[in-house]
Amino acid sequence: MLKRLSVVLLACVTLSACGGVDPNSPLGQRKTIFKQMLKTSEDLGGMLRGRLAFDGQKFADGAVKLDNLSREPWKHFPQVREEDDSSARADVWEKQARFQDLARQMEATTAELVAATRTQPLKAAALTVPMNKVEAACKACHTEFRNH
Predict the structure, then answer these.
(1) Residue ranges of the alpha helices (H) in 51-95?
(2) Which of 52, 81, 88, 131 lies at 20 to 30 Å from 26 by C-alpha?
(3) Angle 26-49/124-145 helices, nearest 10 degrees?
């Protein structure tokens, strides 16, 4: 019985390893960056919406982190679409100019958010509009270029 259980367990572990994404692949790298962007954005939005306690220094640090991250994922979209399990639509590769335009818009909104954090003391009310712009930029790209 123990031998059978071991064989079944080993088979399950082996099969679960087959479906992963190579973290060093372009897809793996951009997925990691997008997850970091989402986590950071959720924390910032949470501070502005009262889900998390507002901490001006943490918000400012998070804005800088989000701004830096916003410049990274685009490097990991190869010129030709890979054959992988990407959430990106084929339009990413077919409409490169539009995709790059939305990427630059995202970068601009995160830079505006960082600029808004330079006005001290930080007040959540003053950061709501620039944060909403960041969230709108994310949504615009997802609506046009991501399979949901």
Answers:
(1) 56-69, 91-94
(2) 131
(3) 150
Q: How many domains does the chain have?
A: 1
Within a 13 Å sphere around the CA of 61, how many CA atoms are in the beta-carbon half? 6
Domain CATH for 68: 1.20.120.10
Give the bridge partners for 88, in sequence order: 146
Biggest distance spanned by C-alpha atoms of the chain: 68
For residue range 8-51, what is the model confidence (pLDDT) as tens digits? 444 444 444 545 788 989 899 999 999 999 999 999 999 999 99
Tell me if 141 is assigned to a ligand binding site.
yes
Q: Is residue 128 part of a domain?
A: yes
* Domain with 34 in it: 25-77+88-145
Residue 52 contacts by C-beta under 8 Å, 6 or more apart in sequence? 43, 46
- Residue 142 annotated in ligand binding: yes
